[in-house]
Amino acid sequence: MTDAAPRLHALVEQLLGVPLPVRVRAWDGSQAGPPDAPTLVVRNRRALRRLLFKPGELGLARAWVAGDLEIEGDVYAALELLSGLIWERGEDARTLAQAVRDPQFRTAVRGLFGLAGPPLPPAPPLEEVRRAGHLHTRRTDRRAISHHYDVGNDFYEIVLGPSMVYSCAYWPDPGATLEEAQRDKLELVCRKLALTPDQRLLDVGCGWGSLAIHAAGEHGARVVGVTLSQEQAAYARKRVADAGLTDRVEIRVQDYRDVSDGPYDAISSIGMAEHVGAERYLGYASELYALLTPGGRLLNHQIARRPHGDESAYHVDEFIDAYVFPDGELAPVGTTVTQLERAGFEVRDVESIREHYGLTLRHWVARLEADWKRAARLAGPGRARVWRLYMAASALGFERNRIGVNQVLAVRTPESGSSGLPLRSRIWN
Q1: Which residues contact 118 (CB under 8 A, 6 or more apart)?
Q2: Residue limits of the Polyketide synthase-like methyltransferase domain (predicted)?
Q3: Of 209, 171, 79, nearest to 360 (Cα)?
Q4: What string of DSSP letters covers 133-192?
Q5: Which residues, 6 or more positions from 188, have their beta carbon under 8 angstroms from its beta carbon?
Q6: Which domain holds residue 377?
Q7: Contact assessment for residue 228 and residue 147, using Cβ atoms and an 8 Å cutoff
């Protein structure tokens, strides 16, 4: 019989208590649901077992990464439709305690187990991080960074393009190229830091060296870039040499906590602070403060979550934590500003560039999809699926204001009280 999709569609709607807005195609070829909607392809019964034994976001992620689930059609449209069922049901959603007392709920679960086959929980995909030890030690941070960034420089070249900048671009308009927007972001950072020839810049989490090369080549700065990724460092050093900047740029494999050759005139931290963690954040801010000369500037570019509940709490996303950024934590921008101020900084400017990240991520997804076969061969099919899902979902998160990204400019203001900033603070010079 070829009735798996109609049965599955009906049981899921019974379980959720709302219509399922996507079409479903099951392993037996059957289909059910709105004919013009994106299609959720359930390739095998194992997908159901993953969802039943780990309900919610992590079960869906495991099925997606393993290739048990796929989306046909517009991935953004599908995620938008599914997000209302998975991530945004809020207080209207039935709690598990309420649901298990509902006879219809129990009937639906029994029906799904009947469809799912042998009642054995599948092993998680190999791409899932197995955590061990305390968070944010030097060893666990190295392991977390290696998991995300040591995927292969060739893979990142596909996604990021020639700029090799793995953070939010700064778009002059939606029709600009990714390269133009990334160059504008690098220039914006340098202008906010007011870099002048021979000033010392510490680039914390320097990635593949793009900001270091721009700061040295365009502004004459002397740059030290630190990263925990061996692959990034090797790639960045080659780029520095190719640009003829080895006398001005040094790339180190080094933890920011081990940098001891201050003072620096400026510090950039672009897309790195999300990895620091709640318990370590004040220490991170204090370390950077100590490395700056009086009057020196910090540009802290960081993703933030929207406040809800305890605004000082940090948030960990199950899928992101297990497959993308192990041990990463997001806090509201107000928490970040408070921690920087507690460390001694004077915060002078906060600029939200949330919409810019949505545009950036859509460009990255388009690049990945355009060269999908090669990307899957380089990183492995599971890892490529992780990147496609997290980037597409993140694009929607920024566009829908579920998450944001902010550039915080802070100064180690000297005792004289002179910050060195212009009276009109958005005139960056």
Answers
A1: 49
A2: 155-396
A3: 171
A4: S-TT-HHHHHHHHHHHHTT-HHHHHHHH-TT---S----SSTTS-HHHHHHHHHHHHHHH
A5: 170, 407, 428
A6: 138-411
A7: no
Q: Which strand (E) or helix (H) includes residue 359? A: helix 354-370
Distance in angstroms (rounded) separating the CA atoms of residues 278 and 339 = 10
Within this chain, do residues 197 and 282 fall inside the same structural domain, yes or no? Answer: yes
What type of residue is 4? Answer: A
**CA angle (12, 17, 21) in 5-degree steps:** 60
Element (H, E) at 405: strand 403-411
Residue 299, H or E segment:
strand 292-305
- Could you report the per-residue pLDDT of 381-418, keeping only the tens digit for each? 999 999 999 999 999 999 999 999 999 999 999 999 99
Which of these three, 116, 148, 173, is where a domain ends? 116
Contact 200, 229 (CB under 8 A): no
DSSP 8-state symbol, 194: T
- Give the model confidence (pLDDT) of 331-367 as tens digits: 999 999 999 999 999 999 999 999 999 999 999 999 9
Strand, coil or helix: what is 295? Answer: strand
DSSP-derived 3-state class of residue 336? helix
Digit-coded pLDDT (tens) for 63-108: 999 999 999 989 999 999 887 676 554 444 444 444 445 677 678 8
Q: Are 385 and 262 in contact (CB under 8 A)?
A: no
8 A C-beta contact, residue 227 and residue 153: no
Give the CATH number, domain containing residue 348. Answer: 3.40.50.150
Q: Note whether 189 and 305 are same-domain residues.
A: yes
Please state, in angstroms and rounded to a whole number, the distance separating the CA atoms of residues 366 and 387: 12
Overall domain count for the chain: 2
The DSSP code sequence of 96-135 is: HHHHTT-HHHHHHHHHHHHHH-S--PPPPPTTS----S-T
